[in-house]
Amino acid sequence: xxxxxxxxxxxxxxxxxxxxxxxxxxxxxxxxxxxxxxxxxxxxxxxxxxxxxxxxxxxxxxxxxxxxxxxxxxxxxxxxxxxxxxxxxxxxxxxxxxxxxxxxxxxxxxxxxxxxxxxxxxxxxxxxxxxxxxxxxxxxxxxxxxxxxxxxxxxxxxxxxxxxxxxxxxxxxxxxxxxxxxxxxxxxxxxxxxxxxxxxxxxxxxxxxxxxxxxxxxxxxxxxxxxxxxxxxxxxxxxxxxxxxxxxxxxxxxxxxxxxxxxxxxxxxxxxxxxxxxxxxxxxxxxxxxxxxxxxxxxxxxxxxxxxxxxxxxxxxxxxxxxxxxxxxxxxxxxxxxxxxxxxxxxxxxxxxxxxxxxxxxxxxxxxxxxxxxxxxxxxxxxxxxxxxxxxxxxxxxxxxxxxxxxxxxxxxxxxxxxxxxxxxxxxxxxxxxxxxxxxxxxxxxxxxxxxxxxxxxxxxxxxxxxxxxxxxxxxxxxxxxxxxxxxxxxxxxxxxxxxxxxxxxxxxxxxxxxxxxxxxxxxxxxxxxxxxxxxxxxxxxxxxxxxxxxxxxxxxxxxxxxxxxxxxxxxxxxxxxxxxxxxxxxxxxxxxxxxxxxxxxxxxxxxxxxxxxxxxxxxxxxxxxxxxxxxxxxxxxxxxxxxxxxxxxxxxxxxxxxxxxxxxxxxxxxxxxxxxxxxxxxxxxxxxxxxxxxxxxxxxxxxxxxxxxxxxxxxxxxxxxxxxxxxxxxxxxxxxxxxxxxxxxxxxxxxxxxxxxxxxxxxxxxxxxxxxxxxxxxxxxxxxxxxxxxxxxxxxxxxxxxxxxxxxxxxxxxxxxxxxxxxxxxxxxxxxxxxxxxxxxxxxxxxxxxxxxxxxxxxxxxxxxxxxxxxxxxxxxxxxxxxxxxxxxxxxxxxxxxxxxxxxxxxxxxxxxxxxxxxxxxxxxxxxxxxxxxxxxxxxxxxxxxxxxxxxxxxxxxxxxxxxxxxxxxxxxxxxxxxxxxxxxxxxxxxxxxxxxxxxxxxxxxxxxxxxxxxxxxxxxxx
Length: 1024
What we know:
alpha+beta, 7-stranded mixed β-sheet, about 30% helix, about 20% strand
């Protein structure tokens, strides 16, 4: 009876689906355990073998916890809104909802391309997901609740006294009774102070504008990353080296009116909450740095000849007498006002240049120094001296106040800036305010061992003393106060895209109004084009039915807008992170029509016990989801402060790319008699042969005759012969004839081209015909082979990616070896958290292990399991494995479990063990990793229940306790033989047995030892 993985796996996948084996209950008496994966974005490329790594790990853990008696929730869904689907729709003319559905469910797209579908791919790997709880963020029955959460955020403010979000009605109640002078809220800067009488007298529109300054989601003019090529705003993590990650389009900084989320209100709670969760220190540190808590002071520098002032946050108020200039962010709102006419052109040019650099790029670039003097001056709060005001892109508008009081003697970046512009108008000498410190070579940035000097009333004080004193004096002047600041900025929540959640918002006189929750969802309208409109509006501006009838309470045609009862709807959509910021709660109660989840379901499941996903989400999804969870906790919905108790970041599986090395050959024509070594401009291309590729096999390419010269040209007999044969009518320059009146030449450009790894076998040999047929530009390619006639490619380890043609699909592995082999192999590759290269060659060994395991249970004639009593060695092998696997799963060391399985099967095979008492529990132990073969073995052993429901075997230490010891017997320190003795013998009994042994008598040769040294359990040594 042979092991047939395809037949077995199809059988048990159907069984699990039909019997809902992994359906979790919301009212179980069992203890709960919630295991979550970061759900995938369903792109057209489908899964490659790198994607399931975390899913397999979470599945192993989920199955193990079920064996332990837990009610396990292990759901799966799809993060199905986002820019990639929209871009694909634009390129192919398909509706993003259609391509998204086909990518998930499988089918044939508009271009006739057969798509396997994520669901089928996931099912083929045998995951124990509770598919009854599947969510898709792009389904209206899901984003209805995302819209509802947005409305709750709009209708809330953050009460700093209560340290929580509250309903906006509690704020208006305060305004009505006492105005806002004593309100301690997270809100916009420069709030107008008003009394209760004034509030009550304000027009409704003014009241709404004031409330927008307090709401947790609000409209404001914000600096954003604008990508003209994509027609949308991008988040920082969607930009790489100043261009969009998708498409590589330039990105500029631009001010736009956008929806924003006041995540800054939760900065301290987000920071403190990191102490209560079991996450890796690297992820926590990433979030701490992103939140960026700083304790210092806010200082107001009054502008000369102006009523305005510049507010600066500094962590070093003790250095205030060291200020020699100020730097504003180029985007600072005062720049245009204060710049002098003489400096205007230079300032405007610098601002335009800076707008092309992303904030992330500016933060990371510590080497480039650039800036411009505005011509304006501020006044020092204490000395009243003029302080020149510069702009520089190392200052960010969104961090602090977008202004820096520059103290070159105490800050390296200020020091470098001052020295770079030394001697220029508007750049004073560096002033040293530190006693006994030399700043001739570098700034002194330490707070330790500081003694302030040249600083009036601060002279002689240390850092702490000077900080306290200067804040006191600033408060007396009314020009500053102590303050805690955070780098964390409010999150821009608008996207100029089609494929995202519509806002439940319409506008009356330019002010946002929320649509009542009972009318949700507001469903995406049909549009003809997914591009911005001709006048620059977002894609929803193309919709003909996109207006809100406030009487009929429904979406109606845009032509009916009268701004009396029918109003325009919001044209932006929510960002991709909207739906992913709460999805784990929806899994708790996925089919609730009236609530995002019931109070009972939320109370039962509480939070995620184990979350597995990529570390690249550290400052995006993982931060936003914590923010939304805390908000929902404040509002009485989420039961816990933190959503994810434990987080594991899986490493990346890397692909082994294949490269065809070679040269591009360009034929050139030369009409005049010129020296062969003249410049390239003397050559003009001809139309006859366009550039073509010559592939050169790996070992040939590395030989001397194919080394390029400094101009990228190769002249050798092999290439000359090949090109001459390919173009026989062309007359080529020969070395001795390089002054012909009319001649042709060729130039080679060295290159290496990615090739599809499916064209390469395990010996790195290229299928040349497949490569030539792959792309039109390769049809005419020529190849120079190895001496044995093969063409060998080179290999490099890179990120597994469709663009690098190194993708290995799990479907192919499952079809050839089975899903259990794939699961075991991915776990066997190495520690879960580490990156590791994929090597298909190693998978056959894991497949062989499963076949060997099968042979413990079956031979050619059928089942060979018996009821024999297991031997001590049998029990020892089993219980070593039980303990090792249980410990490994609890510690997420899955790779060493697979090693232990192999050791165990080898031992049991050598012991010729076929005992049911050993092989039944062994099937349970292996089932989290290889569930299909385990189910089949369990069933064929006569069991009727699914193995997934059976308790995990209990480890019994007694089977690992050694009853015997093999002692080395030494004579004068030299070991001569070994003897196996029971461990419970006394020293006297050991000595008696050893002395009677024939080998001892032979060594002694009739002599009596002077001394017998015995350490029970360790050594026996006869001396003299």
